[in-house]
Amino acid sequence: MNIKLATGEEISIAEGENILSALKRHGKYLISSCGGKGTCGKCRVKVLSGKYRTAKAGKISKGDRDKGIVLACQTVPEQEISVELLESSRLVIGDKIALSKSKDLAELFKSLDGKISPIVNKVSVKLPPPSIEDHISDLERLKRELNTKGMTGMRFSHGFVLSMADSMRSSGWDIDLAHVNGAEAIFITDRRDTSRYGLAVDIGTTTIVVYLIDFSDGRLVDVGMTYNSQIRHGDDVITRIIYATERGGLNELRDVVAEDINNLIRTITEKHKIKPGHVESAVVSGNTTMSHIFWGIDPRYIREEPYIPAVNFFPLWKAGTARLNINKQAPVYTLPCVASYVGGDIVSGVLASRMHRSSEIALFMDIGTNGEIAVGNNEWLMTAACSAGPCFEGSGIKHGMRATEGAIEAIKIAPDTFEPSFSVIGNTTPTGICGSGMIDAISEMLLTGVIDQRGKFVRDIKTDRIQEGDEGPEFVFCRGEKDVVLTEVDIENVLRAKAAIYAGISLLIKEVGFTLDSIERIYVAGGFGNYLNVDKAIILGMLPDLPKEKFMFLGNTSIAGAYLCLLSEKLRKEAEDIAHKMTYMELSVSRNFMDEYMSALFLPHTDIGLFPTVEKLLKAR
Ligand code: FES
User: What pLDDT score was predicted for residue 323?
Assistant: First the structure.
């Protein structure tokens, strides 16, 4: 059977297969935040003709249903049908995202170490060319010369030996032997060839960032960023684990992430005329699930009680095994993880924040797709994951979107007229609202009395901005071809996410016997951390009501940590110490977490005394 697309193209669909799955098989991707469970309402398509049956139509209004709009993941054709793919449902990934290069990286490295010590070391060896008289094999020849330098007992992998004979001859027997700690030979290069590069990679649930580094001076050659194509199979780590395990998609997830990274590598190396084979080592930083999938390790036990990952400290495996298109023998270092939901990205973050070296008590928070926190100093470190969910990335929000072009990112509401004014990323027509926009919107709505402290619309205010939508009441920020609204259900979702973050912070700090006031510094990391307005996040009750000077934005610390570990052995060792030292607290099993969470579902909190600044603002209102 076939599906006819409005463009005239036809794609095959198997008996009983849903439209989303058929589209995916043909490389056509729709936003499918819930991974096809029928709960996110994002995978809409319009059926133009033909019979079909649809399991769930939740999230689709009666009006839209009458127009033939259905959830692709829930709809199975009963005969040949004709379908239009809606622009608003299309998943756009694979685009390179412009990213500014960090000027502070070199400074950060200098402040932490400053001495470049890559994973790969090189030793120069001048081999006597073989002759009729000196006819031992190439490998024995190499070992003989290494013995004279006192380097014995080195391991030679099959991969090394495969390319060894050619490399020796093409270098005229005057070689550099790349090895790891004198223990394992990696590859051979020509001594005249001094180019040495490394790769730092941040595998986020939503985005992937790659830094290419020149080892001669630690210089950042270039940066690449793209969306993680695994988004095709769901927005959060849980839907990815389900896809990897229950649907047998581990290999596919692994391939798409390697392909994303390889595309970035190709773009950068071509642009700078660097041979990918000259990239001699890599460091990867990601959450525990992303790290498992990257290496093709089944992540199923991360999700099953008692939530035990297969690996926290990853051995030094090869780029070839990771399917990376750099030198196949290049060792790939993976930032160690702490627990199922606190991964190498958080270890990277703590390393880059330097909180593990200071006596001041600091709180580190990474508000990305999930929300992880760490508290401590140079003597101790505690960590937890908040399970905030990806709502600040737009998931589960009617017009939610990631912070890309067209997203409303900052909002003000006039207190007398309730008219909103906003700024849009890329100064274009708004198509949705991103995380920082949601935080602004809800705090502004609270301060202007559009919503009450439970997050419900106040019905008797005089504005036509509040209207009845298909999902209940909503506030219209922008009218046009497509309205951009925030519904009461959206507000509830944001309140749940912010409550999980605040409850996590509050409980973790109580657990270690401190109060919020004793926190001397708060580091905020994550892509989202770049745009966050602290005042508004405090009004929302997501961040604790502490003096603004205590907050410091660090941007993407996962890639910063990967960069530091790529350059320095000392910092790789420190990252491991951090991971060993961190005590993980499983919040989901703590009874107090539920109490903290319920109290934080209010705006800003049921105990307004915890938010004196907000109390004042509300009184002034
Ligand atoms: S509703 Fe279809 S993917 Fe979420």
Answer: 98
Q: Are 605 and 360 within 8 A, CB to CB?
A: no
Q: Check: CATH 3.10.20.880 for 121-190?
A: yes
Question: Counting atoms of ligand 1 from 1, which one is nearest the CA of 59?
Answer: 1
What is the distance in A from the centroid of ligand 1 to the CA of 80? 22
Report how far ligand 1's centroid is from the alpha carbon of 45 (Å).
11
pLDDT in tens, 257-300: 999 999 999 999 999 999 999 999 999 999 999 999 999 999 99
Taking the C-alpha atoms of residue 69 and residue 186, their distance in angstroms, rounded to an integer, is 56
Task: Check if 2-89 and 344-389+504-567+581-620 are the same fold.
Answer: no
Atom 1 of ligand 1, residue of closest alpha carbon: 38
* Best residue among 21, 32, 232, 236 to mutate for probing ligand 1, ranked by most atoms within 8 Å of CB: 32
Give residue limits of the domains in the chain: 2-89, 121-190, 197-334, 344-389+504-567+581-620
Which of these, 463, 440, 455, lies nearest to 490 by C-alpha position?
A: 455
Could you tell me the distance, in angstroms and rounded to a whole number, from the CA of residue 259 to the centre of ligand 1?
25
Question: Distance between CA 526 and CA 505 in Å, rounded?
Answer: 16
pLDDT in tens, 180-190: 999 999 999 98
**Average pLDDT of the segment spanning 113-117:** 91
For the structural domain made of 197-334, what CATH number should be given?
3.30.420.480
Q: Which residue has the tokens 């209004």?
A: 61
Give the model confidence (pLDDT) of 28-46 as tens digits. 888 888 888 888 888 899 9
Atom of ligand 1 nearest to the CA of 34: 4
Q: For residue 186, give every residue at least 6 positions away whose Cβ sits within 8 Å of its Cβ, in sequence order, or none.
A: 120, 160, 178, 179, 180, 280, 329, 330, 331
CATH class of 2-89: alpha beta
Matching CATH number, 344-389+504-567+581-620, of 1.20.1250.20, 3.60.15.10, 3.30.420.40, 3.40.190.10 = 3.30.420.40
- The alpha carbon of 40 and the centre of ligand 1 are apart by a number of angstroms equal to 5
